[in-house]
Amino acid sequence: MTRPAKLADILLVEDNEDDVYLTRMAFEDSAFDSSIHVVNDGEKALDFLYRRGDYSNCPVPDLILLDLNLPKLNGIQILETLKSDETLSVIPVVMLTSSKAERDVLESYRHHASGYVSKPSEFSRLVDIVEAIRDFWFSSVILPRPGVSG
Q: Can you tell me the distance from the alpha carbon of 53 to that of 59, in angstroms, rounded to the nearest whole number?
């Protein structure tokens, strides 16, 4: 298996501290060479992505892992904003949420989510998901660089 050539910058938008901890541990266990940046509400997610305030020196992420149910702005509102922005719209957004509701899945894809993953109850399954994200998004596909126009 080919490992990514560079450290991947991943933005995790998650308000549950336990889920943040488990996701970080899954990335460590999977040996995914990445830097995980975490924000815990929708407004902070947009501040990070637009490099506002405390996030002015943050990198543009290579991938966003986005929860649906967040304080201030929910995942769908964040998707709407991102996918309407010419520069940020190219960043893949994988919904990583506890919801398995069909309406949430449909709404996420209607707003151009790149994928939808329901958080598993077993940690080993979360590690499998992180490895699949690594293998697909950082070893198999070619990602555009946000901000580079063609």
A: 14
What gap in Å lies between CA 128 and CA 82, rounded to an integer? 27
Cα 89 to Cα 4, 12, 34, 61: the distances in Å are 22, 17, 21, 12
Contact 60, 146 (CB under 8 A): yes
DSSP letters along 59-108, please? PPPSEEEE-SS-SSS-HHHHHHHHHTSTTGGGS-EEEEES---HHHHHHH
Residue 2 has pLDDT above 60, yes or no: no
Four-CA torsion 100, 143, 60, 96, nearest 10 degrees: 10
Q: Which pLDDT score is estimated for 32?
A: 87
Q: What is the pLDDT of residue 141?
A: 87
Tell me how many degrees the CA angle 100-97-4 measures, rounded to the nearest 5. Answer: 125
